[in-house]
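Handout, section B. The chain below has 241 residues.
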Amino acid sequence: MPKNSIISEGKTTNEAIENGLKILQVSKNKVNIKVLENEEKRSFFSILAPRVVKVELTLKEENESEKNKKEPVKKQEEKHIKKEKVPVSAENIEKAQKDTKEFLDSFLKQIGENITYVINKNEFGLEVILEGKEAGILIGYRGEVLYSLQSIISAVANKNSEQKISVLLDIENYKEKREKTLQELAIKVAKTVERTKKRVTLEPMQAYERKIIHAALQNSTKVKTESIGEEPRRRVEISLK
């Protein structure tokens, strides 16, 4: 590891980064961030266990840091144009559904008896819905466990498929509730920006959640939204037009 680098830890990626910035006593734009894998390999079932996230922070060269000051961060949501989904063959969807069902039967048996699931098929892949008394533990803080589990299910569904299988997971209608919360937050913050005439930067969010904020305010005649920063601390900034 370079002399101008440190490794810091935290319960979440954001916490690990903040801890490292405090040690280096610099702002985030002064470092390059690399999220490291945990030393011990995590199994399907270990996503519920407490974890330690490690990140490597490396001080940027002076000229690189100055360049970043002068050049505004581009909107990554605009760079990553949404690709058209390609319909998947019935055969591949059937295989994905079978593999997903086998995984869920095994996985949920370890969690509890009060969780049920439904797997809905569509032309692009699968929609998995979990419900039940104990299903809430699979959501986690701000959906962290939910999205980890969605990634795992996606890997399972795609392992025997010759085409890309789209997998969407929802637990106890969390995504709809979260979407409503974010829409209300966007409107509330927009009013604050209009009143104070000062820009407001929201907390780091996943791309899916940033998209909800952008959509909620896209027709506003008074404020605009922009995604700034780098993953995993990319945020939405709301300011006057």
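Note. The two ends are 44 Å apart (CA to CA). Compare this with the example in section A.
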